[in-house]
Predict the structure.
Amino acid sequence: MKDIDAIAVLQDPVRRRLYEYVAAQGREVGRNEAAEAAGVARTLAAHHLDRLTEAGLLESGSRRLTGRSGPGAGRPAKVYTRARAERSVSLPARDYRTAAELLAEAAEQAGLDAGLCAAARRRGEALRGSATPCGDLEEAVEMLAARGYEPHLEDVEGVDEGATGAAAHVVRMRNCPFHAVAERFPPLVCGMNLALLEGLLGTDGPVRARMDARPGECCVVVETSKNNVD
Amino acid sequence: MTASASASAPAAHLAQLNVATLRHPFDDPRVAPFVEMLDPVNAAADGAPGFVWRLVEEGAADATGLRPAGEDVIVNLSVWETQEALWDFAYRSGHLEVMRRRREWFERHVEAHLVLWWVPAGHLPSVGEALERLADLRAQGPSPRAFTFASSFTAAEATQHLQAAPPAV
C-alpha cells in the first residue's frame, strides 16, 4: 500500500483513536482494552484494528493475555502494536530523507560532530525563544510531545525525591524523530539530538537532558537537575 | 529451527574489531573522562544480551594496554551472538555516550576503523587475525570476509569464509 493510502486509512475518527491509543502504549494491546479506550464496541474495534493492520500501520500477533501457557490457559488473544515502518507524504514529492543521509554521511566522513552539535544547540535555543529554561518534567513532556518525541514519565527505581518520599521520575521518549538517519550514523545524529534537546530545555535550569540510550527508544532521558550527583 | 537447518548451517558468531588513535597520551588529563568510562562500559558489555567474549590483556580489566596496531592506537576486539546484539550494545547502551564524545579523545580515521566478520561459534579470534580482517576491508571494501554495519553480510553468506576453529588437542 502506498504511504498516502495508508495514511488515508487514519481519516476515520474511530480508527484514528484506536491507532493513537495503541501507539501510545508502547506494548501489545488486546482488542478489549483498545475498544474500551476508544469508547466503541469490541466488534467494531476489532474491525478497525484489522483494517489498520492491513494498511501496515499496526502489526498483529497472538498471545495468551493470562500469561499462562499449556492446556487450560485459554485461547490466544489477538494483540496489536504499532508497525515499525515509517510513513510520510510530501506534496509535491520531496526527498528530505536522502538529503539528510547524504549530509550526515559527509559530516561523518569530515568529522564535523562538534559543528553539527553547536548548530543543533543553537536551533534548540531558538525554538525555546526568550523563555526561561524548562521549569519541570511536566513542562518538558509538553515541549517534547509537540516535537514528536512521544514522551512518557517513568519511575526511577530505588530513588526517593528528598524529604517528600515520592518516587522520582524521568522522562523517556518512545520516538526518535531522526530515527532513519540515527540508525545509520548513531554517534553523529544522536549527539546532534542531545544538543538540540539541551538547547530546547536549557542546560542550567531545573531539568536537564542526558544521553542514556536503550534499545527501541530515543537516546536521551530528561531528569530533574537535583538528581545530579556531580 | 528445524534439525536439518541447524545441521546445514554451522553456528556462527560475529566478531568485531575497532581501532582508535589517541589524540593525547593515555594518562593525559584530557583522556581521563574516557578512562573513567572504561570499567562501567566494559561491565555493561559483559552483561549485555548476546555478548560472548572480549579481548582482555592478561592481568588487566581491558585491552587498552595492548598496542598491536601502533603505540598510540588502542584496539577493541569482541565476539557477539548476532549483529543486532552488537548494534544494541554499541549504540543503544551507555557505550553511545563514549561514541558521542569520540572526537575529544581520538583522531578521525580516514580509513575504515571498524570491521565485522563471522567466526565459528567457540572460536576466539586472535589480534593478528582481526587486523588481517581490517586490512582486507580497507583493501577490498566490504565482502563476506570483512564488512561493516552499513554494508553487512549474513552468516550464511559468509559460510565459506568462516575460519576453521583451531583443532581440538
